[in-house]
Design a protein that fits this description.
It is a single chain. The protein has helices at 112-115, 126-132, 157-173, 219-234, 344-357, 366-385; strands spanning 49-59, 71-80, 85-95, 98-106, 139-145, 201-207, 239-247, 256-263, 268-274, 281-288, 291-296, 301-308, 317-325, 328-335. The chain has 388 residues and is an alpha+beta fold. Among the domains are: 85-145, Ribosomal Protein L3, Chain: B, domain 2 (2-Layer Sandwich); 157-300 and 339-385, Dihydrodipicolinate Reductase, domain 2. Helix 3 packs antiparallel against helix 6 (366-385) and helix 4 (219-234) crosses helix 6 (366-385). The protein is elongated and about 100 Å long. The relative contact order is 0.12.
Length: 388
């Protein structure tokens, strides 16, 4: 808060440590699994990376506890564990001063992508020296390497595989999956339920100023995927073709992306996402026969323009204008429906709990989430082919 010119009382409690970013990504292991001397040597731990979070809804079936029989919502962490590659071993002796490294022995067949980062070279007679010192060795550590890319943290195909696997597990165990695309609950989308939506062309923009949050993933998976989910909910058809391009400006990932999607029913959609903009923009425009809808998700504004017969009355119209085309006379009516005000996150959680109870269906189920992710991954694939 900077230097103060006057005394200010302490803020916060000394009973809790400040929440700060960890100094290193490596976790400290305080206790290793116990094993007997007769067991075969094996690795006692492996590396995992945090990939996301889930909400677990359960019923507390424990007796004589305050929450017995109540519904509990708890958070869980999703970890991905890439394959572990053993590069070598290190032996430690132990005395009153602690552990002391006695030898290092490295593999002679280390992949090039690892040897480029570090040099692993055995000293002359390293293996023979290691064998001679085995009697005083108390602990042996494996020198290992893992690649986050191998776990799918930067590549999209492992995510798709995992999504399909989750759907299979859900069907097998007869449980539901809900995906947190909260934009689907934006009040600006509610008026669309009163109209027959059969779009011919859809234009979507989602722009935002630069923010360090989310820059570790491409803008397609950070921002565009929300609009892809909305798009697929509006167009009841399979994708026929995709044209996509993108550029990297501020980060090592894709910062601006554009995709033109053609569906088998003839609908064409143009989606633009950027995290290098001056202002926030989240707009969708829907064009179809005798109907044009513009939605501003940030302002919570939905405007509807309809073409009707000149004698037809529209009680919801704020303004109307007649026009002539050929030998016909038509009328354009302008509607600006009132939007309800509610907490979208609360509504999403209520929908999930009601779905668990069997009195509702998930607004964005597992299949919808998987379809949006698959289309986003295909778009990202095409962008990488022509990234500049």
């Amino acid at each position: 808060m900077g230097a103060r010119k006057r005394h200010s009382p302490r803020r916060g409690s000394l009973a809790y440590s400040r929440r700060v970013r960890a100094k290193t990504m490596e976790a400290r292991i305080r206790a290793w699994p116990s094993r007997s001397a007769n067991e075969e040597p094996k690795i006692l731990a492996h590396c995992g990376f945090k990939a996301g979070c889930v909400q677990v809804v359960s019923i507390d079936d424990r007796e004589k506890v305050p929450n017995a029989g109540k519904q509990l919502v708890s958070l869980g962490t999703v970890l991905v564990t890439p394959p572990v590659l053993i590069l070598g071993i290190r032996g430690y002796s132990k005395d009153h001063d602690g552990l002391h490294a006695e030898f290092d022995v490295y593999s002679e067949d280390i992949p090039k992508y690892i040897s480029k980062e570090m040099t692993f070279k055995n000293k002359e007679g390293a293996l023979e020296n290691a064998e001679k010192s085995l009697k005083k060795i108390k602990e042996i550590f494996a020198i290992v390497a893992v690649s986050p890319r191998a776990a799918g943290l930067e590549m999209k195909k492992p995510y798709i595989f995992e999504a399909e696997r989750l759907l299979t597990l859900a069907n097998t165990n007869k449980v539901l999956i809900q995906v947190g695309h909260i934009e689907r609950l934006n009040p600006a989308l509610i008026p669309l339920k009163n109209y027959s939506i059969s779009p011919k062309y859809i234009e979507i923009q989602r722009l935002a100023p630069y923010d360090v949050r989310g820059t570790d993933v491409p803008v397609v998976l950070d921002k565009m995927i929300h609009d892809i989910d909305i798009l697929l909910s509006l167009v009841n058809s399979e994708v026929e073709s995709i044209n996509a391009n993108g550029i990297s400006i501020l980060t090592d990932s894709v910062d601006i992306a554009n995709a033109r999607i053609r569906f088998k029913n003839g609908t064409i959609a143009n989606i633009t996402s950027s995290r290098v903009a001056q202002d926030h923009v989240r707009k969708t425009k829907i064009f179809q026969q005798d109907l044009y809808i513009t939605i501003d998700f940030l302002l919570g504004l939905t405007e509807i323009y309809r073409v009707i017969d000149p004698d037809e009355q529209d009680p919801d119209a704020i303004k109307d204008v007649r026009f002539h085309y050929g030998d016909k006379t038509k009328k354009i009516v302008y509607e600006k429906p009132d939007l309800p005000s509610f907490d979208a996150l609360k509504a999403e959680l209520e929908n999930f709990t009601n779905s668990v109870r069997g009195i509702a269906s998930p607004i964005v189920d597992g299949h919808a989430g998987k379809n949006a992710l698959e289309l986003a991954s295909n778009i990202y694939d095409l962008i990488l082919e022509d990234l500049h």
